[in-house]
Amino acid sequence: MAELINVSTLLLIGVLGGMTAGTAFGFIWLTERRTYAMAVWAASLWFGAIACAFYILRPVVPDWTSVLFGNAMLAFAYGLIWLGFQVFEGCRPVVWKAVIGAVAWLPFVAVPFLRDEPALHGALAALVMAIYSLAIAWKLLQRRRIEPLPARLPTAALFAAHGTLYALRVPLLAIVPDFGLGAAFDQSPLFILGVLEALLFTLFLVVAMLTLLAQRDARFHRKSADTDTLTGLPNRTTFFRAAEALLQGGGERGVLMVFDLDHFRFVNDRFGRDEGDRALKAFAQVLHREVRPPDIVARVGDEEFALFMPSIRLDVGLSIAEYLCRRTEELRLLTESGEHVPLTTSAGVAAVADVGADIGSLMVAADAALTEAKRVGRNRCRAYRASSTTHDRMVDDWLKAG
Question: CA-to-CA distance for 159 and 137, rounded, in angstroms?
Fold first, then answer.
């Protein structure tokens, strides 16, 4: 194998590859400022390239100089990879944990007799890299339910496999002390395989990092397209799509509630748009706190919200709507000057049993009931019933519209 593959050539590929990838990551971060993880990963790739450069110098400088400084740089590169994933996951970056792997090499530089212990050098390097790699794999798996990115599991598997290989080197070096670390290091097939594995790992790692960032961006844009930016609730399009899915094969159960904040234009005119936005967010929180899957709540208009509960009947839905109206009236919204912002809501309620399993028809029926609630005085709820005058008025409106 030594005749076919030259270790110095592989290490040179590592130097050039690390510099190129590190520069690309740094350039992307400087131009887009997407996440600080990108900057940290750029630095890690550069330090990995520096480590490879130290290994290349082994034939022309004392072994302990190239190996110890090379291992220290490589340990720091792994620490930065770990730190980058901490930042990527939104965790508090603990810098000393990223540095400690490199600091562990200081005694080998300061104490002369430790410089001539290649097996100990290799065992420590393998242990440091295994710990960082396995820690990253564990963090990726821990967060997969919080942020289910498709690339999480393959990336965790990559780090787990890489970390396990390095962990196995520790007992192996205890059994075979000259494992790839003797004077003829570039002739050891196992060492050559180790360098090849490290290069392949780096290649797949760069791809994994970019894929994770791209998937996070795509997920953010999908969520932004489906979400009302002010309240954080789903928007009208998302609500209709989700409600239609729940209505398919749902039987006669299911109730739609449509809420409209009373005199909201007065709130905006009297207290200002900022206070109006605060009122909208406060009301959204009232609704959100009462929602349990598979219920759906959304902002479907300027001051109009909808709540669909697929497993209840009309009487229960009407009681819930009345409760939410009371909770809204009890809100204590104060301006910066301490002035109370009054907020009430009216609600229209319609049931699948009365209207049918069609979200468009349910919205029309609930809107008709809401109009009735507004007509008779606001801050109250009305239910649509097929036998009511609301139904007759709605039919008349349809006929006139036709």
Answer: 5
Domain regions of the chain by residue span: 7-226, 236-401
Positions of E strands within 267-339 = 296-299, 304-309
Residue 89 has pLDDT above 90, yes or no: yes
Higher-pLDDT residue of 352, 66: 352
Amino acid code (one letter) for 35: T
Neighbours of 54 (CB within 10 A): 21
Nearest-10 crossing angle of helices 152-175, 118-142: 160
Which CATH architecture does the domain made up of 236-401 adopt?
2-Layer Sandwich (3.30)
List Cβ neighbours of 230 (8 Å cut-off, separation of 6 or more): 277, 280, 281, 299
Assign residue 350 a region (left: φ > 0; alpha: ψ between -120 and 50; beta: otherwise): beta
Q: Give the dihedral sign, CA 93/96/99/104.
A: negative
Q: Which helix (H) or strand (E) holds 347?
A: strand 345-351
Mean pLDDT for the stretch of residues 354-370: 92
> Are 25 and 88 within 8 A, CB to CB?
no
Task: Encode burial over 195-233: b for 16+ CB neighbours within 10 A, e otherwise.
Answer: beebbebbeebbebbbbbbebbeeeeeeeeeebbeebeb
Q: For residue 177, what pLDDT is reported?
A: 60
pTM for the model stands at 0.72
Element (H, E) at 142: helix 118-142
How many C-beta atoms lie closer than 10 Å to residue 143's C-beta? Answer: 18
E strand or H helix that includes residue 166: helix 152-175
In whole angstroms, what separates CA 295 from the centre of its chain?
23
Helices 63-88 and 36-56 cross at an angle (nearest 10°) of 170
**Residue pair 187/2 in contact by the 8 Å Cβ criterion:** yes
Residue 150 to residue 156: CA distance in whole angstroms: 11
Q: 390 falls in which pLDDT band (50, 70, 90)?
A: low
Dist CA 388 CA 306 (whole Å): 22
Percent of the chain at pLDDT exceeding 90: 56
Q: What are the Cα distances from residue 241, in Å, to 35, 248, 270, 325, 349? A: 32, 11, 36, 26, 19
β-pairing, 255-261 vs 345-351, is: antiparallel
- Residue 382, judged by CB atoms within 10 A of its CB (0-12, 13-18, 19+), counts as buried
